[in-house]
Specification:
With about 160 residues, this protein is mostly helical. The protein has 6 helices and no strands.
């Protein structure tokens, strides 16, 4: 940082780039360069990589909500006498998380059906592990269409 409080542009060091040594400082410097429109000083390749990583992490969050609430929907359906409130809480929380993720990232809507379909297999395996029921007790494909599974009013009986 200069005496005026302005971040200096990133510099390569003998032991590797600032991007590798101090990602936080690198990111803050890149933000300053972008805001000041000093595009010729940007670390373009790493900025592009970070932008792609950001997009993938948003998809990953959505991907992680689906199997969790699907597994709890399966347990809810197949073990009605063992329904603790925590299962309902998990279903509600993860449905909301998925819906919020889609509201904040509308571009993910095109991946939504694919991510949901991929989520069922691990949800089914986890339901088997957590319930002690045989894997064959659970359908091979999701018994719940995406819209139904996300519907806050839907509870399998």
């Amino acid at each position: 940082m200069t005496a005026t409080g302005r971040l200096e542009p990133p510099r390569e060091a003998a032991d590797g780039s600032l991007y590798e040594r101090d990602p936080y400082t690198w990111a803050m410097q890149q933000a300053v360069l972008l805001r000041e429109r000093r595009f010729d000083e940007l670390d373009i390749d790493n900025v592009a990589e970070e932008m792609e990583t950001l997009g993938r992490s948003e998809a990953k969050e959505l991907r992680s909500s689906y199997p969790l609430f699907l597994m709890h929907l399966l347990k809810w359906r197949h073990q009605p006498k063992r329904r603790p409130r925590s299962w309902a809480g998990t279903i509600v929380r993860e449905r909301q998380s998925a819906q919020l993720g889609l509201q904040e990232n509308p571009g993910l809507k095109s991946l939504q059906a694919e991510l949901f379909a991929e989520a069922y297999r691990p949800a089914r395996k986890e339901a088997e592990a957590e319930t002690g029921l045989p894997l064959t007790a659970f359908p091979e494909t999701s018994p719940y269409p995406l819209e139904q599974a996300l519907d806050e009013a839907f509870w399998p009986e």
